[in-house]
């Protein structure tokens, strides 16, 4: 090889090395931002999680619009935005991640099951149960085929399917799925007890909604204990468990025990998610119920007004939650001699409920 050819080859090799080094650096930047964002999400720091995952998405685009890394980031970003109450943007990202994975990975890949589950969860959280259920079923079938019937991923999807059956009134199917999920998690959690908490919480709230308070309390208490130990006292998941346990006590008439739990849950939600998040509105309505029962009408009214204000900013987000807040407000108004205003609130609540159609017929 002559000197010119050797020099040209060296130039080409140096150019290729530079491109490879740039690609490796970009890959490292993507991984760093992505991992930091996902860790922040797991710790309940939603603003940081979105910022880091948006940066990771920018890095991943350089790999191409069909690169699985872009799908991974968009999938995880969808979870963050869904938790922040931004359902439409979460849906767009989850659909994009699923499309990329279907094209790049084929029909039988574990990451495809994860994307099916993510999009189903986004639909679920938006109340689009008819769209969510078949995606959960596809995810469950694929996970069972690829990983076996006792995989933790199977438990997670069973949890989600059971939640939909619970809402639709299929109580027998929901309880069976929850119990199977819990059995899998008990066998596989090992040194990761946090993985037990979602199923303990979901089965506990299922029993709570069904009036089976004695069955609900140990499950909800255990879920709260696990979450507090693993996540600390300021995580939104801890607030969710506090809210459920507080509501259980309220339903039992133990309002003095309910009120501090609901108050603590509300403070965590406001700090972690912001004052206008739907979780804040939902918890405010429950707090109003407890305060009203304790004769604290002024605080109950303040909580109701806060909840109603949040719902009025996004009236289609949770119409049944909006109706419950109006009904609690009507109770306060009647307690304080404002019957005409109470009737107005009750009429608004009825209209919201009627807009959702008849409740499902329970499967007994």
Description:
The chain contains 16 helices and no strands. 81% of the residues lie in helices and 0% in strands. The protein starts with a helix and ends in a 9-residue tail after the last helix. Among the domains are: 34-148, Serine Threonine Protein Phosphatase 5, Tetratricopeptide repeat; 232-364, Alpha Horseshoe (Serine Threonine Protein Phosphatase 5, Tetratricopeptide repeat). α14 (297-313) packs antiparallel against α15. It is an all-alpha fold and 364 residues long. It is globular, with a radius of gyration of 24 Å.
Write the layout of secondary structure elements.
Elements: H1 3-42, H2 46-61, H3 68-83, H4 87-105, H5 110-125, H6 129-147, H7 152-168, H8 171-188, H9 197-209, H10 213-231, H11 236-251, H12 255-273, H13 278-293, H14 297-313, H15 319-335, H16 339-355
Helix pairs in contact: 1-2, 1-3, 2-3, 3-4, 3-5, 4-5, 5-6, 6-7, 7-8, 7-9, 8-9, 9-10, 10-11, 11-12, 12-13, 13-14, 13-15, 14-15, 15-16
GO biological process, one term: microtubule-based movement
InterPro entries: Kinesin_light (IPR002151), TPR-4 (IPR011717), TPR-like_helical_dom_sf (IPR011990), TPR_rpt (IPR019734)
Subcellular location: Cytoplasm, Cytoskeleton
């Amino acid at each position: 090889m002559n000197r010119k050819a050797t020099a040209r080859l060296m130039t080409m090799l140096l150019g290729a090395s530079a491109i490879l080094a740039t690609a490796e650096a970009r890959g490292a930047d993507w991984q760093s931002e992505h991992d930091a964002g996902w860790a922040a999400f797991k710790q309940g720091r939603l603003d940081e999680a979105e910022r880091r995952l948006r940066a990771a998405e920018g890095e991943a685009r350089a790999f191409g619009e069909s690169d699985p890394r872009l799908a991974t980031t968009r999938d995880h970003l969808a979870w963050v935005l869904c938790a922040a109450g931004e359902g439409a943007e979460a849906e767009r990202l989850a659909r994009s991640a699923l499309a990329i994975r279907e094209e790049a990975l084929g029909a039988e890949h574990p990451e495809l099951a994860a994307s099916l589950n993510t999009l189903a969860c986004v639909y679920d959280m938006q109340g689009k149960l008819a769209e969510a259920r078949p995606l959960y079923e596809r995810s469950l079938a694929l996970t069972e085929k690829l990983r076996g019937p006792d995989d933790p991923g199977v438990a997670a999807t069973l949890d989600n399917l059971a939640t939909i059956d619970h809402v639709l009134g299929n109580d027998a199917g929901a309880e069976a799925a929850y119990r199977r999920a819990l059995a899998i998690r008990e066998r596989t959690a090992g040194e990761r007890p946090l993985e037990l908490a979602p199923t303990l919480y979901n089965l506990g709230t299922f029993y709570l909604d069904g009036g089976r308070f004695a069955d609900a309390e140990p499950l909800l208490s255990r879920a709260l204990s696990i979450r507090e130990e693993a996540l600390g006292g300021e995580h939104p998941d801890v607030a969710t468990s506090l809210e459920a346990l507080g509501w259980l006590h309220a339903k039992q008439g133990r309002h003095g025990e309910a009120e501090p739990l609901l108050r603590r849950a509300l403070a965590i939600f406001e700090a972690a998610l912001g004052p206008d998040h739907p979780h804040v509105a939902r918890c405010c309505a429950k707090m109003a119920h407890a305060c009203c029962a304790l004769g604290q009408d002024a605080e109950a009214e303040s909580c109701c007004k806060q909840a109603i204000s949040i719902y009025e900013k996004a009236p289609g987000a949770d119409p049944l939650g909006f109706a419950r807040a109006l009904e609690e407000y009507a109770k306060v108004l009647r307690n304080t001699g404002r019957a005409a205003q109470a009737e107005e609130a009750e009429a608004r609540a009825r209209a919201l409920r009627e807009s959702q159609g008849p409740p499902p017929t329970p499967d007994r």
